[in-house]
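Researcher: For the record, we're logging two predictions in this thread. I'll number them. Prediction 1 follows.
Model: Prediction 1, sequence and structure:
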Amino acid sequence: MIRLDHVTFHYEDLRMEFDVAVAKGEFLGIIGPSGSGKSTLLNLIAGFESPAAGHIFIANREVTASPPAKRPVTMIFQDNNSFAHLDVWTNVALGLSPSLKLDADQRALINSALAATGLEAYARRKPGELSGGERQRIAIARALVRDQPVLLLDEPFTALGPKLRQDMLDLVVALHKSRGLTTLMVSHHPEDARRAADRTAFIANGRILAIAPTAELFAAARDPEITEYLGL
């Protein structure tokens, strides 16, 4: 579904290089120290960064030179990117049509996404009237109406408390399974990968040092960098 072939990227004095393949329907967790290249990997896949060399493929199509809008990808960031002056319904609708010119089917799709994320009762409230978890649900609902096969999450729940973060993660996992998504999630919390990911990749110094089934990576972290990071 997703393949990066000898993709390189330069940030200041750090040269990053990524070779990785993610299968259709897989949930890949991405962990590692701050500044190691985790977010850059997602930005390369989404098209927000351009590689210095190499090739990026999504769904058997090369997208290396394609702009973000032409890639079958939705990305959710740590900042939920909601518009404070617009109500929840309109914030979600923007993911479907920036012009907000919507037909009946599109309106029904928005209502369905709000119901799926538990926001139906808050449709006419402004983001400032909601909790942090509810605001992050706006971003998830917006991802649903975009209906793209690839979902990228860049530390989306870092600002939430442990219980709320688990609830949001469980919601993402449920949607991942019900929609048959291919999901990549960067997190500073290794337990998020334990809870959600089929496989987990460990990134350090701009490279994937290890990638394995999640339970295997956590149980047999032989690389000293991984061991130190996980506190094993």
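Researcher: Logged. Prediction 2.
Model: Prediction 2, sequence and structure:
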Amino acid sequence: MAEEERIIREDARYVLGTYVRPKFVIERGQGCYLFDTEGRRYLDLVGGIAVNALGYGDEQLSRVIAEQARKLIHCSNLYYTAPNVALARMLVESCSFADKVFFCNSGAEAVEGAMKLARKWAMKKFGGERAGFVAFTGSFHGRTFGALALTDRKKYRMPFEPLVPGARFARFGDADDAETKIGVDTCAVIVEPVQGEGGVNPAGAHFLTSLAEVCHRRRVLLIFDEVQCGLGRTGRLFAYQHFGVVPDILCLAKPLAGGLPMGAVLANRRVAECIESGDHATTFGGGLVVSAAAIEVLRRLKRPSFLASVANKGEYLLDRLKHLKKKFPDKIATVRGLGLMVGVELSFEAAPLLRQFRERGVLVCTAGEKVIRAVPPLIISKRQIDRFIHVFADILEKRQAAPEDQAK
């Protein structure tokens, strides 16, 4: 039995079946490429779902992780350790609004932490009257009970209801509708400056500016979920920096520790001062190895030259895709995105194209039923972007020649 076949069969036997995976096994990576157990190479525009900002096999990042692992891997948050303090300082000093950081292990945990901070703030300011949240259509904030309650995906929510109560959904892009949804029981509004799973939808400066004004006037907190769009992905270190709006709380995760599990909640002083010892905790959050990795990642992501390169390549990618849209106007409905976070909305179901990309040595993912999403490592080259465009064009040309053969 081939190694690939053995692993797939044992996965089916031993691993809880929460994922539908294609029938190949990834073994290693280098730069922007992944390699499977059969030696096939794939140009990766998934990037671990916007996680692997520095690509694969980065020598300096691997060295930092190994050096810290040799010193100490874990000792818990019962004691002071240097890496997480250094990382917290870097994050606060890189933000225009944040004063304190809480470290956790994932984006969903960051959202859960933000929800707890918001409720504690509201409890201190208003007693027990405000515990609800306003989120938006198309949102995705995670799979835990609190984060899922703020996620506008019925198929994700329904099997696990009742979820955390008190969430209302406003139309994404409509600050006036958000204001109608804010009630006397609302403590915070949460929004993604660029929606990821919802189809790669940038919020826009006017919407976010108006939303911030509404939150200020109604005395509720504003939470930005930048789990997917933050940390260099949009060509700025934080996505909110594009819009001239700052939140009260910011959620980060995916690329923060270079592929190791880490999330962070950043809060301004008026929120942070409401938190007391014992209000929240985590066994693994801000551990030594992940913090050391995150310091190295953040050190490189925050360089102006690196961010300028991301912005430039993002503009190049969008421009190439818009030219592709002109060539296939009946196949591509919309191209949208910011930096190296791009969505191509098709006029048909996107999922069948994943196999066609894969057969041509390119990995992409979807964001909703009709959107092909590209969130590659931020080190991707224009030559590699050209390869993606060439493959995309080839797939659309063949579909145009044989439109009935959609599933192949």
